Amino acid sequence: MKWISGLGGGLLLVLVLASILRTLVVPRGLYSSLVIRWWRGLRLLLRLAAPGGGYDAIDRAQTWLAPLMLVGMLASWLGGALLGFGLLLHALSALTWSQSVREAGSSLFTLGFASGDRLHLSAVDFLAAATGPVVIALQIAYLPTLYAAYNRRELEVTLLQSRAGEPAWGPEILARQWLVDTETALPELYRSWERLASDIGESHSTYPVLLAFRSPRPYRSWIVGLVSVMDAAALQLSLNPGSAPPEARLVLRAGFTALRDIARSLRFAYDADPAPDAPIELSFAEFDAAVSMVRAAGFPAERTARQAWPHFHGWRVNYEAIAYELCRRGDAVPALWTGTRDFATTPVPPARPMDRRPADGDAAPPPATP
Length: 370
Hints:
By secondary structure, the chain is mainly α. The chain has 13 helices and no strands. The protein folds into two domains: 1-112 and 121-139, no CATH class; 143-330, no CATH class. The longest helix is centred in the middle third of the chain and has 46 residues, at 119-164. 40% of the residues are buried. The chain crosses the membrane at residues 70-92, 126-150. Residues 341-370 are annotated as: Disordered. Keywords: Membrane, Transmembrane, Transmembrane helix.
């Protein structure tokens, strides 16, 4: 039985090391089963903390998802290492099981109160003593990387609020620009989100725990923001093919490439080369209503909604399925054109500020100062 204990301990330590390297060290989107299991389990438990609640209750509960995942990952690695070294010590000595775990814990956390003068066990003790601080140091070094990526993401999401409303919606982006005569700023918006999409594709596929970090405001979301910018670009390209800026094509390409990178890292299926006429969930009626809204805001459409629909459909088929799945898994704000959720809700339209411009004519003079 001793050799089984030693083999099990060694195998467990190899699995712990592989998980740490895949999650914290290797700079590419490798699948981490530990992260996904913590995500699924904690998401379900936090959903139970808001039984029957609407989106606001779900959002408050899911705010704790990412911090708990980080704590759970560290606890899993340290617990696995403790058990692995305990099994090794039990296999290499006459120590009982409880004594082996006690000595492994003493060495792993560098306390040193339980190690004895046994030369043949010193190597295991020394290795355990090095493992504990290294795992904790890697986790500590991991946090600045996560929060730097989070801050870059949330800066653009916050800046989008004045252009797309809360929650963001693609047609609202176009409508607002023409309502306030800032349509010339659209190319810069597309450039910013092209860069952000590339950043998200790299960082969120490498560190999938970032997907669980929610925005500071409940009606903001990085995935909803990305979908809204892509929808605005696709809508502009389909309605105005002659005057749409080239940046619109670039942000669409960067966006669905980033979403596919994330989908690969999470291992959920998607069509890598969908046909332009493949089915999508968004209906023509919803598209037609959005076109009428943006045209009422002053958007100069070159095509009718019926003419533009096949072109918009051909763009959206590249990203809709992945975006809807990420919105569902992340319990994102139920914005328009972002699919269904796992909780009962209705789509939330963006709130548009009131027009407070002064009426035409001479303004009244300011009151005289005494």
